[in-house]
Amino acid sequence: MRIDIISIFPEYFAPLEISLLGKARRAGILDTRVHDLRGWTHDRHNTVDDTPYGGGPGMVMKPGPWGEALDAVAPAPAAPRLVVPTPSGRPFTQSTAAELASEPWLLFACGRYEGIDSRVMAEARGRMPVDEVSLGDFVLAGGEVAVLVMIEAISRLLPGVLGNAASVSDDSFAPGAMESLLEGPVYTKPPVWRDRAVPEVLLSGNHGAIARWRRDEALRRTARHRPELLERLDPAALDARDREVLAEFPGHGEDVAH
Fold first, then answer.
1. Is residue 204 within 8 Å of residue 210, measured between CB atoms?
2. Which of 73, 147, 241, 242 has the fewest beta carbons under 10 Å from its own?
3. Spatial contact of 106 and 4, defined as CB atoms under 8 Å apart
4. What is the rounded distance in angstroms from the CA atom of residue 225 to the CA atom of residue 228?
5. What pTM, to 2 d.p., does this model score?
6. Backbone Cα Rg of the chain
7. Is a pLDDT exceeding 50 seen at residue 178?
8. Residue 19 backbone class (left: φ over 0; alpha: ψ -120 to 50; beta: rest)
9. Mean per-residue pLDDT, 228-248
């Protein structure tokens, strides 16, 4: 997969050189290229922003540098999928990550200040798919950190990036993974640490009992921390034990369990 990133802070993307992403780049699975937006400015101050029309606080990123940058990075007829992080975009979810992981070429535009002049995205839509996405109901100083999050979420779904492909299918929120329940607690050696023992069932070798325990704990954690996710469960798919576990949380699992 090819990934291009346009930002006024290209140094922000040094983490692409380390851990799984760095290994994927060196293995040729990821071809990531970072571009400095200021390279498409034409004044001695490399200005990329100006005051908003209509007044108001903050600054808006100018269309000129962005238009030239997109033309240079993806000259027609090239048509990558343009991804723009913004609080006003659609939510970025695991399903979004899987959707974007199927693309051969992604181009990320990192906005700053009050955002990018809206004409840039309107013009880009005439020649490439454009996705405006949000990590959540909060505001960041810029799009760089959001792009790093999205690239990691997307890249780990690519074949060969993770050492164990089964890790992806077991993720919380993975499509079809326990109906989007949160993943339960995990443990490793030693079996006892600071007088706290690993749950005995995990040491039993009984794979059926272990699977049941993991599902029980996933149901419990979801009920405690993200009860709204329980609404996605299909009541017809719940067995008697599922209903028993959900009954431990009055007011949360009742609509699903009964």
1. yes
2. 241
3. yes
4. 9
5. 0.84
6. 23
7. no
8. left
9. 94
* 6-45 tens-digit pLDDT: 999 999 999 999 999 999 999 999 999 999 999 999 999 9
Instruction: State mean pLDDT over 137-151.
Output: 96
Q: Which of 49, 50, 114, 183 is catalytic?
A: 114
Pick the catalytic residue from 99, 171, 183, 248. 171
Of 173, 51, 60, 50, residue with least CA distance to 111: 60
- Average confidence (pLDDT) over 216-243: 94
3-state secondary structure of 88: strand
**Burial class of residue 152, CB neighbours in 10 A (0-12, 13-18, 19+):** middle
Q: Average pLDDT of 148-176?
A: 77
Other Cβ atoms closer than 10 A to 138: 7
Annotate 45-67 with DSSP letters as a single string: T---EEPPTT--SS-EE-HHHHH
Active site residue 156: yes
Assess whether 114 carries a catalytic annotation: yes
